[in-house]
Design goal:
four-stranded antiparallel sheet, seven-stranded mixed sheet, 22 helices, Rossmann fold, 3 domains, alpha/beta
Length: about 575
């Protein structure tokens, strides 16, 4: 496909003008009545000139447009600068960048692209597209029939192939159509096919339901591990890495760290995690004297990027080793597929059986957490958890509570329900905006500081620190999420609403300026923390990236995730939008 991309880079102006000469309605009229109502999430693969993305965004759809040709992408952005379009550099068959965002889509459009794929890449490409599709979602593919007039590297394509791929992936063909070429080329014809993904389409939900409700449990560990995955999927998905087509790898140190955050309050509250766990960490394999019992830190402090020293570092490192060992021996071993001994979540060593060393600087980096090995999560299961954790996690919690009550009853105890609820609550650190406020005060002393949403000049009297994504929707106190805003706008207008696409796009330069001045200032000790937090919790941001533009792109993608996965209500910022 690289030859085709090179052709489009070299002929971008001509190709772009050609595509813009016909309308979306003419090319895709066959699809119109199958589209869901806006706002729905659309992925336009091989977006070309941006014609289709622009039309759909104009109808109110949120569009992620991926285009591998840098020049085509540049021209498309200039021609169609719409706030509802998010442009990404990506390509089939892997769509690696798109997958890393964690987004899933109601509609995926693959128009005039399939013939660029070598036949050997198509099964992989189709699998990736289906993985990115929401249950009930629509995949629309158009097929070019005719000669390769510009030597762009076309391959023969057939509808039969797509029918077979749809069947192989649990989807079905909803519509087929054909037409002559709208550009008047007599030797070119088009076929179209619309594929629908029914229900969940992956068997992920039945598998989760079986583990949560039906699987035999001698402890809470299976439920604990599933909840760990829900927590990572919600707030630390940036550390998950795609492994081939079928799995993602999650650093085992991150799994163990999240496990401790979940279990430490329960152990401290003497709430039983097995029938024989009568108090504290008694007879819990992961609670050892040199580990968790010596860990004298709040579970809220156990976060990626935190730094420890002395006895606390020694106890935490020992705890991570103990938890990793327990998870491998217990839930990983016994959480198997129905009627099989194959583990659902296999563990893989880092490449050496040696124990990972303590971090020399005491910092919980991604590299340190990965040194414990990796938990391999099936792709379909991971995508289901990422999409639906807001519903899956409450089911896990409810079943976990039932188990703990049953264990306590067998021990002749009755649990205090308020204490149980407090120990089970996943609480992010308090809404501490102190560091961001200190930076805002520093900048106010040095010169003007402006509200990111309105552009108004701020003073100490009207300054508020706003959570860009409200705490009520997504409790995140990361530095990138804390922004200076006018108190009236923050407290009376935006409040607990998600910023709309237009107001966020309009605020881009002010957000980038704030991030740079507040956290990237010379001698600032916050720059490293800012980078680690952004790479951990923002989709599509590489841990090696140092570009604020990349962080803003991740911010925009996270807005889409919250909007579509949680149906979060939006604040349009209408009074402050440029006319």
């Amino acid at each position: 496909m690289s030859d085709a991309i090179a052709w489009y880079d070299a002929n971008a102006e001509r190709a772009s003008d050609r595509y813009e000469s016909v309308t979306f309605e003419r090319v895709h009229g066959w699809l119109a009545d199958l589209l869901p109502k806006p706002p729905a999430a659309v992925l336009d693969v091989g977006a070309g000139s941006g014609r289709d993305a622009a039309h759909l965004s104009g109808l109110g759809y949120d569009v992620v447009a991926v285009e591998p040709s840098a020049r085509m992408r540049e021209l498309a952005r200039a021609r169609h600068d719409a706030p509802r379009i998010t442009w990404r550099d990506d390509r089939l068959p892997a769509l690696k960048d798109t997958f890393s965002t964690g987004l899933s889509f109601d509609v995926i459009l693959v128009s005039a692209v399939w013939m660029h794929l070598a036949p050997t890449d198509r099964a992989r490409a189709f699998r990736k597209l289906i993985t990115l599709l929401k249950p009930g979602g629509l995949l629309a593919i158009t097929l070019r029939q005719g000669p390769d007039d510009d030597n762009r590297g076309f391959h023969p394509v057939t509808v039969d192939e797509l029918r077979r791929l749809a069947t192989d992936h649990g989807a079905y063909v909803e519509r087929e159509s054909s037409n002559d070429d709208h550009m008047g080329r007599g030797d070119v014809h088009w076929k179209q096919i619309a594929v629908r993904l029914p229900d969940d389409g992956t068997d992920a939900l039945p598998l989760l339901r079986n583990v949560i409700l039906n699987d035999s449990k001698s402890s809470t560990y299976k439920l604990g591990l599933l909840r760990v995955l829900c927590r990572i999927a919600d707030s630390a998905f940036g550390l998950a890495e795609e492994q081939g087509e079928d799995h993602v790898a999650i650093p085992m140190g991150l799994v163990a760290l999240t496990w401790i955050r979940l279990y430490k309050p329960l152990v401290d509250a003497d709430i039983p995690q097995s029938p024989v766990n009568e108090h504290g960490g008694h007879r819990l394999g992961f609670v050892r004297q040199a580990g968790i019992e010596r860990l004298d830190v709040s579970h809220h402090d156990l976060r990626v990027g935190s730094r420890f020293s002395g006895d606390d570092l020694a106890a935490l490192h020992r705890s991570l080793l103990d938890v990793t060992s327990t998870i491998i021996r217990m839930p990983v071993r016994y959480m198997t597929y129905p009627n099989s001994d194959d583990p659902v979540l296999p563990f893989r060593h880092k490449g050496t059986t040696k124990r990972p060393p303590r971090p020399a600087d005491g910092k919980l980096t991604a590299g340190y957490l990965a040194s414990f090995g990796a938990l391999r999560v099936p792709m379909h299961l991971w995508m289901a958890i990422r999409r639906l954790s807001v519903w899956i996690e409450p089911a896990i919690i409810a079943e976990w509570k039932l188990l703990m009550r049953a264990y306590a009853a067998r021990q002749g105890r009755q649990l205090d329900e308020q204490r149980l609820a407090q120990a089970m609550a996943w609480l992010e650190p308090e809404r501490d905006v102190r560091l961001a406020r200190e930076q805002a005060d520093r900048l106010l002393k040095a010169g003007p500081l402006h509200c990111v949403w309105t552009g108004r000049r701020l003073t100490r009297r009207n300054l508020d620190i706003d959570h860009c994504f409200p705490w009520a929707i997504w409790p995140c106190g990361d530095l990138w999420n804390l922004m200076p805003a006018h108190r009236k706008v923050n407290q009376r207008e935006k409040r607990n609403l998600l910023p709309g696409d237009r107001i966020l796009r309009q605020a881009e330069e002010r957000i980038l300026t704030w991030w740079n001045d507040a956290y990237r200032a010379p001698n600032s000790v916050l720059g490293d923390r800012f980078t680690v937090e952004a790479a951990t919790s923002l989709p599509g941001v590489s841990s090696s990236s140092d570009r604020l533009d990349d962080y803003y792109a991740g911010l925009a993608l996270q807005r889409l995730r919250l909007k579509h996965n949680q149906q979060a209500p939006e604040w349009t910022g209408e009074p402050y939008l440029r006319k």
